[in-house]
Amino acid sequence: MRILPPVLGGALLLAGCGALDAAAPVETAKAAAPCAAQPAGEVALPGGTFRMGAAGVRPEEGPVREVAVGPFSIDRTEVTNAEFAAFVAATGYVTLAERAPDPKDYPGVDPSRLRPSSIVFTGADADPERNDPSRWWRVVEGADWRHPQGPKSSIVGKDRDPVVHVAYEDALAYARWRGRDLPTEAEWEYAARGGLKDARYSWGDEPSDPQRPKANYWQGVFPAVDTGGDGYKIRPAPVGCFAANGYGLYDMAGNVWEWTRDWYKPGHDAPEGQDPIGPDVSEAFDPAEPGSTLPKHVIKGGSFLCADDFCFRYRPPARQPGPPDTGASHVGFRTVRRGQP
Asked: What is the model's pLDDT at position 12?
């Protein structure tokens, strides 16, 4: 069963389904720094004990607890358009965004309105209170991994960009095709910390220097103005354009959110210990949606839409609920393989 993305309060039913006409490349405030050859392969991590979570930043990130993860290998970068295209070519896989919602799930809705679509960030001309996400997002008919801004957009020339508009089941299908899995939240956070103990960011405790940004995130007043000070204005960067963390992993901060296996519940209440997992699906809920019955998965890492003055979630302990039944223009993933290499 596919449920409409709750970020728009079910707006797919009646509004926002029209195609997004603007498909020209997004202008940047400054030229993007040239990227070296794409980092390839995976990084084998030995596992170990670390302090998961954070205190005093966002309530859902605590309490801090000591956990351990076993050895695993993780993709050096987010899965790219080229890598996902190879999967589709080999298997014929069709992503959720490319499928029409089932009319049985939406009684009373004209079936002609239920067309393949996904969620696209479109900014906001004015939202002083910054409390109406429906002004920042649209459910765009024809938006999918090949057309990230809508049917007139394209990924031609963007083989190295992280693939987006992949729902949870799409990411898991790719991982299984490669004989791999999606990381648990604990595995992902252990990898993102890069061996640093209790550091605020994946690179340390010092904020990113605006003159030499350490990640692709929002610079400016969200959601109206992104100055593009990092060279990428309201768009993902090709993978590997910013310095790797201490484990040699790229883009563990910003760029695109990444799926994890864990179900989301605010706060960490699982037992401390070895290889913790999140709550049972029956306990998973998003407090921002009282009464919602749709469980969410944890997404990690923040994205190019994370601003210091609003989201501030491009930090290892940061976490958000991701509806598993839909993709979005700022959500991607990477995969893991557990055990010794």
From this structure: 31
Average pLDDT over residues 196-211: 91
List the beta bridge partners of residue 119: 139, 328
Check: CATH 3.90.1580.10 for 1-6+40-124+132-341? yes
Which residues is 50 bridged to in the sheet?
67
* Token output for 189: 């956070």
DSSP 68: E
DSSP state of 212: B
Q: How far apart (Å, rounded) are the C-alpha atoms in residues 289 and 279?
A: 18
Q: Pick 42 or 6 by higher pLDDT.
A: 42
Q: Which of 75, 266, 256, 254 is nearest to 178 (CA)?
A: 75
pTM equals: 0.88
Q: Over the stretch 33-91, which tens digit does the pLDDT of each residue have?
A: 568 778 889 999 999 999 999 988 888 999 999 999 999 999 999 999 999 999 999 99
Answer for the pair 251, 35: CB distance below 8 angstroms, yes or no: no
Cis preceding-peptide flag for 266 (omega within 30 of 0): no
Q: Which positions ≥6 away from 68 have C-beta within 8 Å?
A: 47, 48, 49, 50, 273, 274, 275
Contact 165, 143 (CB under 8 A): yes
| Predicted pLDDT of residue 34 | 66
Tokens of 118: 């996904």
| Residue 331 · residue 296 · CB < 8 Å | no
> Quick one: how far is CA 34 from the chain centroid?
24
- From residue 27, alpha-carbon distances to 99, 190, 217, 219 in Å are 31, 35, 16, 14
- Residue 236's alpha-carbon distances to 16, 232, 300, in angstroms, are 23, 7, 15
Q: Report domain extents, the chain.
A: 1-6+40-124+132-341
